[in-house]
Amino acid sequence: YVNAKNELILGLGEGYRLVPPISIPTGATNIQIGQDGTIQVLQPGSGTPRTVGQLQLSQFVNPQGLQLLGGSIFLPTDASGPALNGGPGTQGLGLIQQGFLEQSNVDPVKELVKLIETQRAFELNSQSIQTADQALQTVANLRRG
Length: 145
Known about the structure:
It contains one helix and nine strands. It is of the alpha+beta class.
């Protein structure tokens, strides 16, 4: 969507601001984003689309080294290396798909298995603590008796 400052915002709700920002001309209609990241708009009185900017993508040598801030926002670190910027479809970067929802990166089966493993570990630890407590109570009762 376009905010009050005529900046293009990606995503639903508040969305994410582009860096560097891309301004959409006032009154522009029919915003289209091509697979190569070019952003075109139709302006009133014009039948041909006008290019107003191009999205840039970044990749990292070690993506696992990025620092997660939350909400799908990451910061580069020394471990991740510097950002390697480029246009969509170049230098091994992916293409842009307008109007599609991003697929979840969560595998429900793996997450369910992790949940069951965590629950079993908790139960085992709980039983260990319970057994140790009973043993200490038995020792305390032997000392009294």
